[in-house]
Amino acid sequence: MAAHRHILNASQFDRPFLDRLCRLTNKIRQFDKSKEGLIYLQSLLAHKRAMLYFTQPSTRTYLSFQSACHILGIKNSEIRDPSTSSERKGESIEDSLQTFSSYVDLIIMRSPVGGLCDRIATMLDRSDRPIPLINAGSGPDEHPTQALLDIYTLERSFKNLGGIEGKTICMVGDLKRGRTVRSLAKLVTLYPRAKIIFASPKEFKIEADLRNTLKGSATEFLETEDFIDAISQSDAVYMTRIQDEYDVAGGDSSKVDSSKFCLLAEHLKIMKETAVIMHPLPRRNELDPAIDHDPRAKYWRQERNGMWTRVALMTTLLGVDEHILLPEL
Length: 329
Description:
The chain has helices at 15-31, 35-44, 60-71, 93-101, 116-125, 144-157, 179-188, 208-215, 227-232, 299-317, 322-325, and strands spanning 49-54, 75-79, 106-111, 133-138, 168-172, 195-199, 220-224, 236-239, 276-278. The protein has 329 residues and is an alpha/beta fold. Helix 1 packs across helix 6, helix 6 packs across helix 7 (179-188) and helix 6 packs across helix 10.
């Protein structure tokens, strides 16, 4: 298993890392079942501090990381609006983050600016206090911790069906700018015989870099505009919204007809009985709320899995994971 100073992109993970993280997350969930177990978890990193630097609007990811910190006893501070910091006075974001690194042991960072997490990680590595950084979403580039929780959700959902290996995963929606899709697709390539179907309007097809990455792997993939055929043959359907916050001049998402790529209650009858329905949320009209109570809908469980997966990730990054895997309470 590879060791990591920072968590920046999905490409840095290998299959042993994913398998171990899933085992670790399962063990953490066992600790959650008792008061003694939760107290033990809170003792592991009570001497650590974290900065949640979230300058892109976020509800789920922010609360998931904050809750994960609380579970481990990590004290956390936050910056959610850079206009309240010295950046408003003209300070560079690098100087701001280096200042924050003086006060904490971990930075968890979410930004609308692509590549920023990598820049800050490089800056931290060159500083006299090279603390770890977790990318909690970097522009349209990557969302590696979302991909980890997605893998964990898929593994749990298919635990009686042989796991992710050999399964067909359909990813739907804005695949061009959807960072969750980019990160998850890279991890799916680590599972033998897994297949990916990308279903989207032609305007939102995957970008060339991801396509080339997939071509260089052993993973079979298909790009299609036939949503109905795609979901009917898939073991998991991963819905995503249109990422219109990244619209630029001449790129108005409202001009693209995505109505044929919405999962409705009427589609349930053509899907496999063992299929899994996922969504990183927030959702709009691409996922019918009428589906919420179908046993195949896993997106609310997916959200809770995110908290536990991030607990496991932070224990790994901060070197106390063995204290969870070894003791029996």
